[in-house]
Records
---
Amino acid sequence: MRYAVVVAVVAANLIGCGGGSDSSGKPTQSGSSGGTVVSNGVDLTAAGATFPYPIYAKWISEYAAKSGVKINYANLGSGAGIRQLIDQTIDFGATDAPMTEAEMAKAKGGQILHVPTVLGAVVIAYNLPGVTQPLNLTGSVIADIFLGKITKWNDPRITSLNPGVTLPSRDVLAVHRSDGSGTTYIFSDFLSEASPAWKSGPAQGKDLQWPVGLGGSGNPGVAGTVKQTPGSIGYVELAYARQNNLPAASIKNPAGVFVAPTVEAIAAAASNSVKALPANTDFRVSMVNAPGADAYPLASFTWLLVYKNQKDPVKGKKLVDFLHWATHDGQQFAPALDYAPLPPALVTRLDTLVAGIVVGAPK
């Protein structure tokens, strides 16, 4: 089943075509099979990543109440957002996987900018009845689970990381994304660093050839499958694990510390990574395995994708104003929705990036 969420903001109300959010902005699941970005009665259209949907839904609602600007966001996955922006069928896109040079070269509207918006965590969620203590896992063990090399929960490679925890002999079912996904990109980026076997096998990307397991569409699809399937394990954005009451493993970082996915641990990864950004960065950077004992190793930026040259002056100004609001006032909503806000030093640099967008560029 394909999960798709289309968000439309009308006045101060957030309504969904196949899905939406609750009053806090938490994601709600949908079984709708749609996927078209509806533009009637809205000011801007967008599509892309499910990873940041909870915060984007909240932003769209809050910004509509403040400004009257109505934004339609189709929650279809990073791959769809990139494709639709390339073809100029939407006003801006959203992704958790930086666009490749080949993708950038196909863009019909010229140069595309990557604007980081918040930082999130990919978590390893699992359904293991009877096990109440949070599990510890390493990148290499996670890789072997999704490679099909670890097939039982009481495999010695898992039990050795969790002394004192009684693990059952139940089969392990790995659940992965079936659609083009920035969440998959972040997950596979991390595993490619942790496991030579993974790097030479499925490797890194938004779409992978999975050796084992069951696919789910979008973060809601993976979280829903894990929740309904005892013995399963999957990777989802933190908010989706929390919404579904799924436990999430602590993961060993490069400093040798098992770190749980928390807003504080994501913020630590962000702070340490931002310090290393070069002056000429285009912000297409990986944050997995950030330095620091307190940094969660599966953290990442998520980006909005915008054309540098905005040929429609009315839409262009609305988009620039929204970007400025999101990277400033919008950051206050991030922690309550399980995201880390942008470090202040990065926001200053993004002001320069957004100021460089040309509104009303010649056609």
---
Amino acid sequence: MPFAGEYRIIDFTLSNCVNSGLKRIYVLTQYLSQSLDRHLKLGWNIFSSILGEYLYTVPPQFRRGNQWYLGTADAVFQNVYILQNERPARVLILSGDHIYKMDYSAMVEAHVRSGAWVTVATVECDRVTARRMGVLQVDRENRIVKFDEKPEEPRPIPGREEYSWVNMGVYVFDTETLVRSVSADARSDSRHDFGRDILPSLVDSGRVLAYPFVDENRKEIRYWRDIGTLDSYYEASMDLVQVDPVFNLYDRSFPILSHMTPRPPVKMVFAGGEKGRIGMALDSLLCNGCIVSGGRVVRSILSSEVRINSYALVEDSILFDRVEVGRHARIRKAIIDKNVRIPPDCSIGYDHEQDARRFQVTEGGIVVISKGEVLA
């Protein structure tokens, strides 16, 4: 289920790769990556080694000591021997915390035609949101002339004063430039980040180009979301429960692929009795194995095998696998991770002070309950 399951976000990036015809992929994994490795092995065994296709997961190599990846550039540097062994002409680098549909092959072709050392995917973003992103200044020939990381006053796009160009975290590098850059960065006292350190150091060369995002979502409004925070993750998830969601999950020509474990269909239960308790879900997405037994679900996403018991109410929330909501419980504006049991008569999302004493509450007021947490 998109957005409502551990590590499912990476499915969007990998689906873009497959739909773009790119089938030689390395996923650089971080600390405690067992569940990610399992998900990729079960859901992405679609590549043929006979045809030279592969998807490999690569944990940190500890080539500079006993440290995990210190940043995106350090992650590539720790695995630079892969590039030295395979010697590809170009490398496509992608982030795993963004939601969008894009044909990467068109960007690679534009990079080759331009003769650039690096091509950076860019997207228009309103200037308020751009304050928490990497903002680019681009000249008339699409050369990037400056990077600003999270500026207070993002530079506007000429002629479109309410918008700025922001860095999507999608890069095409000539391999020689990439190896040289991450190796030099490894010797410096930097944050080892592409947007903050690597790319600004290359701007003066005049060989760093912008590639304006071309949306494959087939909607009037372009869709790209950075979900690096819990609030942005929640907002992107809630986009999907709209009557006509901007992000199109139903386009068969550009499918979103994932691992799907066989489970029973969704079950909506009329619990009977004199008053009658009708299980219902309105403006919501429910995965296989869910049971709504006399409860009510509104504008929410339920992952696999969630159970909502009689008289319970779940609104504007995201429930991960195997969450159970007890009778008469009320949940509003919450993200609840796997294997959590909400006791009968429990209220979450109605009393900010009480919620903050028991759980994490985001700046946007979203209550977050950790995986397997036991609630009294």
